[in-house]
User: Which sequence fits this backbone?
């Protein structure tokens, strides 16, 4: 479970303070698909980045697996991001001169890639309907296909938490629905906790957990 306790985030812009989060408290169930909904500027992405240890709260705690992220050393934060969290972003972040398989493997290149990892990358791409696009580079893929490669990349390390920031923001409704279909199917296989930030609630199903933010506070 991810336990968010009274989290505040204040950004300083010169002498001006911008309150992105104002005492947010909520819980995200282990193994669930949770949506963080709200209008632009409500603090959705800020909260997601705090859960992913890409930033630190001004006040409050975020507890993951019974440990407060605020107590992590810098090396522990790096390890948490590297091993426990898979990130999916709106703009895909694929490398232009790599094919689909190597884009999935890209985060592991510095440590060296095993044959097992390459096999797993191919399997994940096949699971998201990219089996016939394994040797294609990003400029040969549609937006929906690129996002499916990004999903496979995020899941290759079998993370306990997957954080998706507006994963369909660059896609039309048809491709967006397709991406969520694959994401849900993969979740049932890997049992990761998936947290999705979006302003579009059309992808939410009745069984999903929803946290609604407004003006930096939990509205529902």
Assistant:
């Amino acid at each position: 479970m991810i336990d968010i306790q009274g989290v505040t985030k204040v950004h300083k812009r010169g002498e001006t303070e911008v309150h992105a989060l104002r005492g947010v408290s909520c819980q995200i169930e282990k193994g669930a698909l949770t949506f963080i909904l709200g209008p632009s500027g409500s603090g959705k992405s800020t909260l997601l980045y705090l859960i992913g240890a890409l930033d630190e709260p001004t006040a409050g705690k975020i507890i993951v697996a019974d440990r407060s992220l605020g107590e992590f050393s810098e090396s522990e934060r790096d390890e948490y991001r590297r091993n426990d969290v898979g990130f999916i972003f709106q703009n895909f972040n694929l490398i232009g001169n790599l094919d689909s398989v190597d884009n999935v493997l890209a985060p592991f290149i510095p440590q060296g890639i095993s044959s097992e990892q390459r096999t797993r990358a191919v399997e994940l791409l096949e699971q998201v309907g990219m089996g016939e696009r394994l040797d294609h580079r990003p400029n040969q893929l549609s937006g929906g296909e690129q996002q499916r490669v990004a999903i496979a990349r995020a899941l290759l390390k079998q993370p306990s938490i997957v954080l998706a920031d507006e994963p369909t923001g660059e896609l039309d409704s048809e491709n967006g629905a397709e991406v969520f279909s694959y994401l849900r199917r993969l979740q049932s296989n890997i049992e990761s906790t998936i947290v999705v930030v979006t302003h579009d609630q059309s992808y939410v199903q009745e069984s999903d957990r929803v946290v609604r933010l407004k003006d930096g506070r939990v509205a529902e």
Remarks:
- Residues 105 and 153 are 7 Å apart (CA to CA).
- The beta strands are 2-13, 16-28, 33-37, 59-64, 67-68, 85-88, 161-165, 193-198, 209-214, 217-218.
